[in-house]
Amino acid sequence: MIDAVPLTERIRRFEEAEQASQDGRREAEKARDYYDGRQLTADELKALKGRKQPPVIENLIQPKIDYLCGLERQTRTDPKAYPRTAAHEDDANAVTDALRYVADDQRVDIKRSAVFQNMLIEGYGGIEVGAKRVRNAIDPSVLHISWDRLFYDPHSCKPDFSDAEYLGFITWMDAATAKADYPNAASIIDQTVAKPTGAAYETYDDKPRWTYWADAARNRIRIVTMYCRKGGIWYRSVFTLAGDLEETGPSPWLDEDGNPECGLIMQSAYVDRDNDRYGPVRNWVTLQDEVNKRRSKFLHLANSRQVRIGLAHGKNAEAIRKELSKPDGVVVAENGEIEVIPTGDMSAGHFNLLAEAKQAIQLTGPNATMQGKASQDQSGRAILALQQGGMTEMAPLLDNLRDFNIRMFRAIWNRIKQFWTEERWVRVTDDEKNARFVGVNTTKGSLAAAKLLEAVKSGEIDQQTAQQYAMQLQSDPSMKEPANSLAEMDVDIQIDEVADAPTLQIEQFEQLVKLAPMTPPQYLPTMFELMIEASSLRNKDKLREIMEQAKQPKEPDPMQQLQVEGAVAEVDKTKSEAMRNYADAEAKKAGIEREAFQMGAQIAA
Q1: pLDDT single digits (tens) 449-491
Q2: Mean pLDDT in residue range 352-377
Q3: What is the Cα–Cα distance from 49 to 43, expressed in whole angstroms?
Q4: Distance between CA atoms of 235 and 473, rounded to whole angstroms?
Q5: 338 near 309, Cβ under 8 Å?
Q6: Which own/partner contact pairs does 527-534 have at CB distance under 8 Å and 24+ positions apart?
Q7: Cβ atoms 16, 154 nearer than 8 A
Q8: How far is it, in rounded angstroms, from Cα 531 to Cα 508?
Q9: Alpha carbon of 294 to those of 51, 299, 303, 358: distances in Å?
Q10: What DSSP letter does each residue of 450-474 carry, written as one string?
Q11: Domain boundaries in the chain?
Q12: H/E segment holding residue 491
């Protein structure tokens, strides 16, 4: 293959990215430490230990980050494909099922959440969407890359890195493992281990931080995977200091037009004018420092006293200071020999500034209003309105996450379209009880046979009827036409958005539940449909299908119809016999009365 970018140029670019991102990486490491609660330096801890004061850290950053991470997890949605033309309307469902299969197989939700946390704390994160061989097929693979292993073009200034000329990541690996993965590059690996070279900054260093390009003691090397854009074409290379480990050439991953594309998808939260990537933690660090310092100073003033001692008294100042610092200290002195200077004004000042600092950090980013904790007496609609107002501040950040999400699934679809060229059946796991299989690159007959098998399993038709349908499918020439051909599909990938909080939905559902007992019987089915729509139940589509099936009139069973007709005839026969008996009884009664009347008339004559 053609090496559009020589090895020396690639090494120079990597070192350029490494050196230019020193300040940003140092700030990112500090942001990670503050999230983890490591907010005091070694000198500060030593000073606190010297005055026997415990280090107190009130971490106000971690709950904010955890809330945003929880919000992302709570609002996860599945990808859905929409057709660009009317001819691909039915094919879009197969694409949706294929995307969800890959998302479940590669645990995309977990990896996307890891990228979002990197965006919030360090400022950026990324994944590589490639492919790997599994059994006898090639499936898309999604690999999360930790932020401290990523590098990028320092001249890039867009949040999605779309203007970057090169992107990449590094991997530390044992030399023996590297030789097993790259057997044709054993000499290059040995040369790198024998001649390590220092790097400009230690963030790319191995953990623990010992060496850079190679660690001769542990026999480990650093491998760089880089995507470079040259002449509008993306090239992929894997190399180390001494040479290439893989043959360099155009990227093996193709876009929807069949052109090589970058498999590394990166996203940042914010970008400053120096092109440094940062997250919301940057704005909270100084406020968090003030909270810690004010709290520590207030605690120190509360446990300390200032005193004035006259020189003529000859008292030991150090001994008096130690006694006054003790809760049960004893000072032997005459009245007026020792004067305690009040420091309440200093303590009050630090306490007020502490309260202001805490209020300032709580009002920025996720706050009580966004979390629905402003007041417990508010209605669900009022809480939702406050949450929506608070979410306006985080809209740019969440919009960047949504853009990353769409680009990731678009890359997954490109891998599916590129490597799934043969007939393939994927298992869709959205049904809790029954597994459903979807075929791609198949024929219409195969899809019809699969649906026929599902109908037999569900009991919709019997085995004999299914065999008759199967014979008809075999004799139909149109059933041999291709169906769900991925190469011919043209779809859009979109991510459905959901509400930021289910407060209003829950409130509406509760109101419908209260109205259900007062609903007239003829409107109960409609009320039941409204309750399903307003609920947060899983598999709503399945419930809707069941209700639609219940509405459709079913053809009566012939045997059952005969039984019903026989029962009706028996009832009619019983009724006719009863009426005939009643008529005979009335006629007999009338004859008796007539005979009695005639006898009475004769007697009277």
Answers
A1: 666 666 666 666 777 776 766 676 666 666 665 566 666 666 6
A2: 67
A3: 10
A4: 48
A5: yes
A6: 534/505, 534/508, 534/509
A7: yes
A8: 9
A9: 16, 8, 14, 10
A10: HHHHHHHHHTSS-HHHHHHHHHHHH
A11: 7-278, 306-342
A12: strand 491-495
